[in-house]
Amino acid sequence: MTVLAVTEHRRGKLRTPSFEIITAGRDLADALDAELHLAVIGGDVNGFADRLNRDGVDAIHTVAEGEEFNHDVYTQAITAMAEAHDPDALLMPNTVNGLDYAPAVAGALDLPLVTDAVDFDAEGTLEVTREQYGGKVETTVDVEADAFALTIRPAEWPVAEGTGDAEIAPFDVTIDESAVRSSVEGFEEVGSGDVDITEADVLVSVGRGIEEEENLPLVEGLADALGATLSSSRPIVDNGWLAKNRQVGQSGKVVTPDVYIAVGISGAVQHVAGMKGSDTIIAINTDPNAPIMDIADYAIVDDLFDVVPELIKQFGGQAPS
Amino acid sequence: MEPMSTKILVTVKEVAEVDDEFEISGLDVDDRYLEYDLNEWDDYAVEEAVQLSEASDDVEVVTVTLGPERSEETIRMALAKGADRAVRVWDDALANAGLLDATTKADLLAAVVEAEEPDLVLTGVQAADDSFGATGVALAERVGFEWAAVVNDLDYDADANVSSVRRELEGGVEELTDVEGPAVLTIQTGINEPRYASLRGIRQAQRKPLDVHTLDDLGLDASVADSPVTLTSMYEPESESDAVVWEGSPDETADELATFLREQGVVEG
Ligand SMILES: Cc1cc2nc3c(=O)[nH]c(=O)nc-3n(C[C@H](O)[C@H](O)[C@H](O)COP(=O)(O)OP(=O)(O)OC[C@H]3O[C@@H](n4cnc5c(N)ncnc54)[C@H](O)[C@@H]3O)c2cc1C
Ligand SMILES: Nc1ncnc2c1ncn2[C@@H]1O[C@H](COP(=O)(O)O)[C@@H](O)[C@H]1O
Questions:
Q1: Using an 8 Å Cβ cutoff, are A188 and B228 in contact?
Q2: What is the per-residue pLDDT across A29-86, written as a single tens digit (0 to 9) for each?
Q3: Which residues contact B194 (CB under 8 A, 6 or more apart)?
């Protein structure tokens, strides 16, 4: 029995989900009484393989093809590897790149696919725990199949430690270049502009609960009264109400202030990825079940339009009318 | 020379949103606590397609939805925003199937792609309710199209049928990628500014074609709904919260928070 887990790197560095997937993969392999194999595709495969050789890894298959991720190459390489090693489980990270090949690989191999697992139980029928409705509920999905594909949510499993004694070997695959119909032309970083929210000690962060652009001065007023920096969740930036450099989260900035005040933010996983390391998290939200409450240290379950003006008053400011 | 005509297919899901307070009955949130709306990501996908059709002649925008009759309100909304016509697929076999996983949805949408033969398919990155984040790429694989996931910028060359896209990676990094058509692109929020439907648009939408297909119409067998992936339970997660909840009127809770911030030395005075 084999569990095959796919690792991820970008611009010369292994990404953290690569080490988390070892932990998840080892759990799964133990449940299935299987070996854990890793796939390393592209870039400095030998250097990567050495670093990925942690406790619990049985074998590492490398494919030295290209410097950066290309989904056509990944799809072909993983499909070929799966055909050669016949894994019972294929684990892939639920990252932006993971979602760019995992459904294609599962399709090519005709494997059932469950994405964004936060937990699983593989003693007997595979039972996968997922979230639904923006994290308000959890679900269990059963997978009745001899083999399956699963993508796992980042930051749910700890990174694997220790040194392993995996067998590291190149996997021989010929990439069909005519089937590579996408090409990565480069990368660009979103500029940081006038403010750097990662430097702030106190962040007042505004979300969709603010409803209208006209209401933003209210939260700006709070930030001013506190001498804090203003940041936001994604929809505020998507709407063009604040610049991209204010966005906290997976595709924005990772912040670790002393105090993070989330005003009208639900706490979606991609938002939490950017602020869960804050020392103290305070949530102001009308919904007592909002996922942000799970990570908040303090909370006010009330309407921000009632609470924020009072707060501004407390600090000697005046709420915009 | 005649301009080449381009057909863009946009997958549009009607998603359920849950009220603050709710109850679960059986395998879903009780319908009393659900409100239905056009999936946020699909709203951006529709807008992207409509903008392409406004920018050049001879672009047809067709939406496709897997959903019950109720979803026609949402479909009309997409038509009101400028899509030309809509396809809705539904069947007793789907209604009875329970969870439609991404692979099943891809199989169903593939039949529509094969019938419509679009040059470009736009989907959302994810559905806001069950959030598989996988249907678009699964569909591409199924129909042999090229693809790109999590696209937040699109420059489409209709003559060459090449999409130059930006894929939004983690941490503020964007990948610039060229994708040969026909392709499926999964569209990320923020790629454009979705319009509101105008009154005129809403009126026009009533007259636009909305074709309903059963599995049989698409040449599919009811077994397409059989999946090894089944939903077996839904529950409210055990709260991991150990938050101190300040209670009281807004001036009382504001006072608690202000006192806390002063004690922490976050603010002076
Ligand atoms: C690939 C990908 C990357 C993403 N990257 C990011 C990212 O970097 N950052 C990010 O933030 N999101 C990101 N998202 C989006 C994320 O999934 C959520 O859609 C987003 O975080 C929701 O923002 P929100 O909490 O402001 O809005 P909502 O989820 O709509 O929440 C609004 C909250 O306000 C509360 N509220 C409403 N009215 C009031 C009121 N009067 N008073 C008090 N509270 C009120 C509601 O109860 C609710 O909890 C990403 C998504 C994807 C798929
Ligand atoms: N029932 C559906 N009908 C039409 N399109 C859908 C449906 N479900 C998913 N999609 C499309 O696939 C995208 C990703 O959905 P998902 O993989 O379920 O998160 C959505 O944004 C839609 O564009």
A1: no
A2: 999 999 999 999 999 999 999 999 999 999 999 999 999 999 999 999 999 999 999 9
A3: B43, B44, B46, B47, B81
Domain ranges for chain B, please list them.
Answer: 6-225
What distance in Å separates residue A54's CA from the closest CA in chain B? 25
DSSP A146: S
Whether residue B168 contacts residue A251, with contact meaning beta carbons closer than 8 Å, is answered with: yes
B245 shares contact with chain A (CB less than 8 Å): yes
B129 C-alpha vs ligand 1 centroid, how far in Å? 13
Q: Which residues line ligand 1 (CB under 6 A)?
A: A 96, 134, 207-209, 233-235, 247-252, 264-266, 268, 270-271, 274, 284-287, 290, 303-305; B 125-126, 150
Q: What is the pTM of this model?
A: 0.97
In a domain, residue A94? The reply is yes
Q: How many whole angstroms separate alpha carbon B266 and alpha carbon B269?
A: 10
CB atoms near residue A196 (< 10 Å): 12
- CA-proximal residue: ligand 1, atom 52 (nearest): A270
Its ipTM equals 0.96
Q: What's the CATH class of domain B6-225?
A: alpha beta
Can you tell me which atom of ligand 2 is nearest the CA of B132? 19
Q: Both A261 and A303 in a single domain? A: yes
The SS3 of residue B222 is: helix
CA distance A122 to chain B (A): 14
Q: Phi, psi (5° rounding) for residue A203?
A: -120, 130
Peptide bond into B182 cis (omega under 30): yes
Question: At A6, which CATH number?
Answer: 3.40.50.620
**In B, residues 7-26, which contact A (CB 8 Å cutoff)?**
16-18, 20-22, 24
H or E segment to which residue B93 belongs: helix B92-95
The rounded Å distance from CA A209 to ligand 1 centre is 8
Residues B150, B153, B155, B156, CA torsion sign: positive
**Which residue of chain A has the CA closest to B177?**
A184
Residues A165 and A208 in one domain: no
In-domain check, residue A184: no
